[in-house]
Amino acid sequence: MRAVRVTRPDGPSAVTVADVPEPEPGTGVLIEVAAAGVSFPDLLMSKGRYQVQPDPPFTLGLEAAGRVLDAPAGSALRPGDRVAAFALGAFAERFVAPEESTFPLPDELTDEQGAGLIMNYQTAHFGLHRRGGLRAGEVVLVHGAAGGVGTAAIQVARGLGARVIGVVSTGEKAAVAARAGAHDVVLAGDWAAEVRKLTGGRGVDVVYDPVGGERTGESLRLLTQEGRLIVIGFADGAIPSLALNRVLLRNVSVIGAAWGHFVDTRPEVSRAIADDLARMAREGTVAPLVGPAFPLEDAAAALAALDDRRATGKVVLRTAR
């Protein structure tokens, strides 16, 4: 079968597609992949910079959607079931995922949408609901609101009953964030002043921040009393230093949300999140925005699009020949 391989950690240009032996189902769920989601961790792995870095050579990819070919004895899954799954090795025509990381795919979503349903949406739900305690009626500010991470946060926040303000860098990306469901969208140039205007000077209850860098300090200043800054990652490349006096005097919280590490030993949390995301999909709130779609052979170009920040929505790979 075809698979996207990393043989040396030199980034997207060094990624290749090769024929490899088909996997054995073993104790996991064997899945015929229809579409795979391209994420920032995949990009980091191609460069040898991810926090849990496999030794090359290995098959890249962490999430995919498709149909079950085989499942362990006693499993609720059956051959032919449509699923979304999370496990290393997803950029291939077939891969094996643990049953606890394999979830039924709602009928309302396509395979391409399912390829973007796990990492971004589970992280958004975990960060906003479990870690951030988001309540209906609160105001959420989402940085990087046009990418796969940001559009997921917009939709999950709406599904939890919040008002959402997105921050983007261009007018084109503003249209994407609005299509994802943001109530208001502001451009990054003077974003803090615009957010203050939109909220009548009140500020926001929650900031969802996958960007980091220089925005973090201003995000703290925008929080209302008892507001929460949810730290998702540092796409800007800079890990900011925080002015803890602001945290103290304004009675605000800075909260980390590392979904993957948390659910590794608590699969019941991931299952509960999947159930709630399925509810949101049935209600029409959650519908992943599929961005550029590449054939499996063009995996290097898909990773480069993510690396150059040219992509809006979720970048996916399709396995069909």
The total beta strand count reads 16
- Oligomeric organization of the protein chains: single chain
The string of secondary-structure elements, in order, is EEEHEEEEEHHEHEHEHEHEHEHHEHE
Query: How many structural domains are formed by the residues?
Result: 2
CATH superfamily of the largest domain: Medium-chain alcohol dehydrogenases, catalytic domain
Pfam family, one: ADH_N
Domain Enoyl reductase (ER): 11-317
EC number: 1.-.-.-
Keywords: Oxidoreductase
What does this structure look like?
The chain folds into two domains: 147 residues, Quinone Oxidoreductase, Chain A, domain 1 (Alpha-Beta Complex), CATH 3.90.180.10; 141 residues, Rossmann fold (3-Layer(aba) Sandwich). The longest helix is centred in the C-terminal third of the chain and has 17 residues. It contains eleven helices and 16 strands. Strands 3, 5, 6, 7, 8, 15 and 16 form a seven-stranded mixed sheet that branches. It has a six-stranded parallel sheet with strand order 11-10-9-12-13-14, with helices on both faces. The chain has 321 residues and is of the alpha/beta class. The protein is globular. Its EC number is 1.-.-.-. It is an enzyme of class 1 (oxidoreductase). This is NADPH:quinone oxidoreductase family protein.
